[in-house]
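User: Here's a structure from my thesis project, written as structure tokens. My advisor, Dr. K., wants to see whether a designed sequence matches the one we expressed. Can you design one independently, without my sequence as a hint?
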């Protein structure tokens, strides 16, 4: 049972370090491009509303661990 607790602690520490080094992931709505393309005029685009045009979103747990 102790090995399981140690394993979980090591996984949590690894995820925390990973969040500190790489806090963002690509936006799943615009696929990281920052642009949202139109349905009728497919060549036209605007900034993605979900990521604000950056193409990035916070990873799960980024705000919990004090990133922002």
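Assistant: Designed independently from the structure alone:
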């Amino acid at each position: 049972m102790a090995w399981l607790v140690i394993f979980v602690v090591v996984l949590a520490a690894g995820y925390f370090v990973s969040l500190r080094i790489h806090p963002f992931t690509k936006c799943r709505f615009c696929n990281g491009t920052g642009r949202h393309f139109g349905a009728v005029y497919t060549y036209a685009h605007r900034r993605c509303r979900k990521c604000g045009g950056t193409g990035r979103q916070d990873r799960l747990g980024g705000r919990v661990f004090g990133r922002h």
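When you compare it with your expressed construct, this may help: The two ends are 35 Å apart (CA to CA).
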